[in-house]
Amino acid sequence: MRQSLFLCTAAIGTVTVSLCILTFFAIIVLNVQQMTKHWSREVQVVAYLDEVPSKKSLNALIREAEMLDEVEEVVFISRKQAYDDFRQRLGDDVILLEGLEDDFLPASLKLSLKEDHRTREGVERVVKHLRTKKTFSDFRYGQDWLERFESFVGLIKMAGLILGGFLLFATLFIVANTIKLTVYARRDELEIMALVGATSAFIKIPFLIEGAIQGAFGGLLALGFSFTLYSLFLQRGLETLLLASGVEQVVFLPQYFQIMVVVTGVLLGVLGSMFSLRKFVRI
Q1: What span, in angstroms and rounded, lies between the C-alpha atoms of 23 and 252?
Q2: Count of CB atoms within 10 A of residue 58's CB?
Q3: Residues 6+ apart with CB under 8 A from 226
Q4: Phi, psi of 254 (to 5 degrees)
Q5: CA–CA distance from 1 to each of 5, 83, 191, 202, 210 (Å)?
Q6: I want to staple 200 with a disulfide (CB 3.0 to 4.6 A). Which of 50, 151, 235, 283 is the partner?
Q7: Does the predicted TM-score (pTM) go above 0.70?
Q8: In what order do the strands lie in the sheet with 136-140?
Q9: 283 — pLDDT class (breaks 50, 70, 90)
Q10: Residue 52 has pLDDT above 80, yes or no
Q11: How far is 263 from 269, CA to CA, in rounded Å?
């Protein structure tokens, strides 16, 4: 590395810039996924009761609903509570309720689903079970909204996979070509080693180790630069965009993802060195 310090620095810089772009992309995708996760809490099933059963029957009904694999929590909404909630939602238009009794709205059970079951299939399984009970007169679970939500989440995942794969491939291409320059600058050294009988592994291993070290440095520098730029600019921009959508906080990469960035840098360095050496070392 000391013999071609400029090219080694260029290789580390290339890995750093490439991984910075990947890191920014990952931060945006992770925070958008947080937003969709927050929205998924709205996936609920409301089962309206034709008549409010006795307390014993109601408790049995709630326990049975809680036993379903998909259900996380069941809350009973009385007629009075439904009326109060409706009044609160009307705000300044509460005058529209004048003259109406406070029990004209039906009582209901509100079922929140577990995170893994907040899908159209999970909702339909719960509704199918509840329909077997004659106690319920109607159900509301926002089928249209649920379909649009699933389409949006699917689009986000697809875009993440395509763009992430494209960025990773482009990064590997750029890093490989940069490392190729460092190998090309030392082609005389490679030829001499081959002429004196050095084996392919003996020639390649130092370059692979060098590529791994460059990639590790690049990964660590990418994390440092990404965190600095995130703190200075990106965090504020994402907060402006996402906090209004209900996301509680904007986050940087979790710890396991930071480790993945460094490991990706090492892999890029090793793969880039391997691709570059194929042209110069044919033993």
Answers
A1: 10
A2: 16
A3: 19, 20, 23, 24, 27, 253
A4: -65, 165
A5: 6, 75, 18, 17, 7
A6: 283
A7: no
A8: 71-77, 108-113, 44-49, 136-140
A9: very low
A10: yes
A11: 10
Matching residue, tokens 């699917």: 154
Residues in a beta bridge with 108: 48, 77
Q: Give CA–CA dist 21/19, Å, rounded.
A: 5
How far is Cα 3 from Cα 182, in angstroms, rounded to an integer?
Answer: 10
Type of residue numbered 101: E
Distance (Å, rounded) from C-alpha 92 to C-alpha 231?
A: 41
**Does pLDDT of 171 surpass 90?**
no
Residue carrying structure tokens 């609903």:
65
Cβ neighbour number for residue 195 with a 10 Å cutoff:
8
- Where b means 16+ CB within 10 Å and e means fewer, 257-275 reads ebeebbebbbbbbbbbbeb
Task: Calculate what percentage of the chain has a pLDDT beyond 70.
Answer: 94
At 74, is the pLDDT very low, low, confident or very high (cuts 50, 70, 90)? very high
pLDDT digits (tens, 9 = 90+) for 116-167: 888 888 888 898 888 888 888 888 877 667 677 778 777 877 887 888 788 7
Helices 235-242 and 5-40 cross at an angle (nearest 10°) of 20
